[in-house]
Design brief:
The structure holds 2 protein chains of 2 kinds. Chain A contains no helices and 11 strands. Chain A is mainly β. Classes of the chains: A mainly beta, B mainly beta.
Chain lengths: 114, 112
């Protein structure tokens, strides 16, 4: 039973298209994140939601819009895709109050923009 | 933005050798964590450190939280082929405990 699951795992699309990645966690955590991992494997935080409230919003183009319908789900919608958006996007979750620091990651969604 | 510098960037070692990698920053951290990422997977937590000077072991892995709170190291003893992967340090800054910042990663290759 997967703890943090992302769909799709692979996404290949043309420049200018709009696409979404979905994430769900069944760990009962109250905080969810989106990280971007580039081709050099750098992991950079993009957004974080705590109980559906946005708490971290890094310097990310406003073509990226996260949505959290409830605390178990965090989706990422990307408009007008550009070549530089090609990366692996990781969803993660944690429990903020105990905040041991441990994030549980999904398997990643590899986005390729042609 | 804040950066955690990890070294070495990559390591190629023989099975059975010990490995050491470290992470440094100009900022003070409240926590230090070490994650491992296997190909095609998300990072998985190996060790978490919460106090300056803390030394913690997990099997063949040992990590320490630097006394200045600006660095940490990870040692792997008697490496085995399944240790292959990318190792990341990560930490929460003292002034922003919501954001987990990742290091630049150390790619480990183990040859039999």
């Amino acid at each position: 039973d997967t703890a943090v699951s992302q769909t799709p795992k692979y996404l290949v699309t043309q420049m200018g298209n709009d696409k979404s990645i979905k994430c769900e966690q069944n760990l009962g955590h109250d905080t969810m994140y989106w990280y971007k991992q580039d081709s050099k494997k750098f992991l950079k935080i993009m957004f974080s939601y705590n109980n559906k409230e946005l708490i971290i919003n890094e310097t990310v183009p406003n073509r990226f819009s996260p949505k959290s319908p409830d605390k178990a789900h965090l989706n990422l919608h990307i408009n007008s895709l550009e070549l530089g958006d090609s990366a692996v996007y990781f969803c993660a979750s944690s429990q903020r109050l105990t905040n041991t620091g441990e994030l549980f990651f999904g398997e990643g969604s590899r986005l390729t923009v042609l | 933005g804040q950066q955690l510098n990890q070294s070495p960037q990559s390591m190629f070692i023989q099975e059975g050798e010990d490995v050491s990698m470290n992470c440094t920053s100009s900022s003070i951290f409240n926590t230090w964590l070490w994650y491992k990422q296997d190909p095609g997977e998300g990072p998985v937590l190996l060790i978490a450190l919460y106090k300056a000077g803390e030394l913690t072991s997990n099997g063949r892995l040992t990590a320490q939280f630097g006394i200045t709170r600006k660095d940490s190291f990870l040692n792997i003893s008697a490496s085995i082929p399944s240790d292959v992967g990318i190792y990341f340090c990560a930490g929460h800054l003292a002034y922003n405990t919501d954001k987990l910042i990742f290091g630049t990663g150390t790619r480990l290759q183990v040859f039999p």
